[in-house]
Every structure is written in C-alpha cells, then in structure tokens.
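Hi,

Apologies if this is the wrong queue. I'm a grad student, and the batch job for Endoplasmic reticulum-Golgi intermediate compartment protein from Phascolarctos cinereus produced an output file that my downstream script rejects. I'm not sure whether the problem is my script or the file. Here is the sequence I used:
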Amino acid sequence: MRRLSRKKTLNLVKELDAFPKVPVSYVETSAIGGTVSLIAFTTMALLTIMEFSVYQDTWMKYEYEVDKDFSSKLRINIDITVAMKCQYVGADVLDLAETMVAAADGLVYESVIFDLSPQQREWQRMLQTIQSRLQEEHSLQDVIFKSAFKSASTALPPREDNSLQPPDACRIHGHLYVNKVAGNFHITVGKAIPHPRGHAHLAALVSHESYNFSHRIDHLSFGELVPGIINPLDGTEKVATDHSQMFQYFITVVPTKLNTYKISADTHQFSVTERERAINHAAGSHGVSGIFMKYDLSSLMVTVTEEHMPFWQFLVRLCGIIGGIFSTTGMLHGIGKFVVEIICCHFRLGAYKPVTSVQDGHTNNHLPLTKNSIHSTS
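Support response: The file is valid. Your script probably expects a header line. Output copied below for reference.
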C-alpha cells in the first residue's frame, strides 16, 4: 500500500512538472539556431557585466524636511586674504539679534604676500576649473560627496619659495560660532569696537589711499569642516579697481546631513550671489568700503544619503535579463524560420509549374510522357 501511494504521489508530481523533457532524438539542431544562440549568450554576458557594474555603483538620495534645530550654534570656517596690512583691517560678525562676534573669538590675522607663488597659482587655477564644471554639471556634486575624506585636501598649499618681498596683505583664517539667525560677516577698515547700537570700526586713523579690498577667498564654509568638499566661493579672487569699493556676497545657507559609507557629518551647503560697486556719495552710491558677506539660513534641511542596490534586486534584474533574452531570441528565431520557410516554399512551387508553349498559333497542353502513360496506352 505504501508503494502504491508513493507511486501515485510521484505520478502527481510528474504531472505538475512545468519543465517537460524532450528526448534527444526528437531535437533538431541547425546552423541558424546555433548562430542565434551564440548571439543570445553573448548579449546575456555583456548585459550581466553591465548590470554587475551598476550593482557595484552607489547613488545619492536627497530628502527634505523642516529644520527644527535653532538653538545650536552655527560654525563659520573662514580663510580670506585681503590686500591690506593687518593693522588696517578688522573682521567680525553682527547678526539680526544685534549680537556681535569679534574676530578675537576664533580668527587669526597673519601677514602674508598677496601674490601667489607658481604652485599656489596652479592650485587656484585648478580649483576655478572645478568650480566652473560644477556650475555646468550638477551631478559632479554627488561625486564630491562620495569622495569626501578620500580626496586630496582643498586647502591652499604653503608657499614653496622664500620670497624676500615684505608682506603686503593680511590673511584672516579660523572659525567663528554664531547664532542660527541671519547675519553679516564683514571685513572693513579699522578694528571693531562695541557700540550701544551695534558696533563701529576705527577707520579715521587709516589713510584713504591705503584702501585696497582686493581679496582672495581660499575657503568659506558653514558647519562641520569636511575635507574634500568644494564650496561655491573657494578659489574666488576679486581685484578692486577703486580705493572705495564694496564687495557684497548674499549667501543662503542650507543645513545638510551627509551620510555616506565613508563619513557622517552635519555640514551646510550654500548658494551665493555676488555684487560689487564703487562708493561715490556724490553719485548716490552710498555705503562703506569693505567685504560684506550677508548670510541667511533656510528653514529646510537636506539629508544626503549614499545608497546601494540590494542584492535581491540585483538577482531579480539578472533573472529578468536572462529570461527576457531567451524569450525574445526564441520568438525572433521562430519568426525568422517561418519567413525562410515561406520563401523557400515559394521557390519550390515555382520550380514545378507546367510548361506552356505556343506553336503555329495553337497551344500545346500535352504533358511529357512517362512510363505509366506509355503502359496505359499500350
């Protein structure tokens, strides 16, 4: 009884077989079929290699939400060189809450030579080329995010030549912590002093002829300092054409959480609009000579996450490729075989058409004699 039940079970399972086996003696091979199979296998191999390269690659996913953190401080990273001596200029931040953050809270004044050495000039030229490419190809920003901490440092290399030229510029570098409200970081003539209505700069002791706000921004960023990240103003150089000239940068800062397979950092992206003009009170162009960076914070926060294709999705896509190519090539092979058979049959039928000849105006419809017809006449 057990053997009979096993046989019934096996027979039932055999009837459910979705892959019936065809005996080898019933299989007919052809050169056309072999060619189609070779093309199919080659295509499958190429698409599998391409799919594996896609599986190895990663992409950046952008998510947006409202930034609810307004109690923490915002870090500003600064590295700016001004073509004036350090005793003539002062830098500080004043926000909308009338809170003043002096340069002494984190900035360093260093006397340097404004003109770059050949190696430094080459670095700046390369950085400006990258900036122009980033404006044209926005997808390059994803590459920079993924290569953060792995790429070379974007800081200005130290001067390699021992120039005997006296320092004629002031490098202001370091970082400041400010409130997360709109503010104004500026560099102007004279050191800043507190004032009941804000603050003021002691510019009366500086000769107007020594004003020169030509400057170079080697680095400007907000938030945590992430090596390898290139910011919009890095490598910017401006040359003043007048002693009384104002350079303005209007910056919109977007809080950004960066999560890649290399790093996790809370940084900030920003966009900037530039404007410069000469101060001429007689012509109605009022203001103060200097460099002004007015920043405002966006209420949205961007989360940038590096993602990878799951392994199960890679297998599903791979099965789709193999099955799709098998089905498509089998269908094309069947259609091609059908067309070839129709054409061959057409030529075969044409070869057996009866011959009709016309002699002396009469049609000869006699068929050629065969042995069977000779026997029948006899």
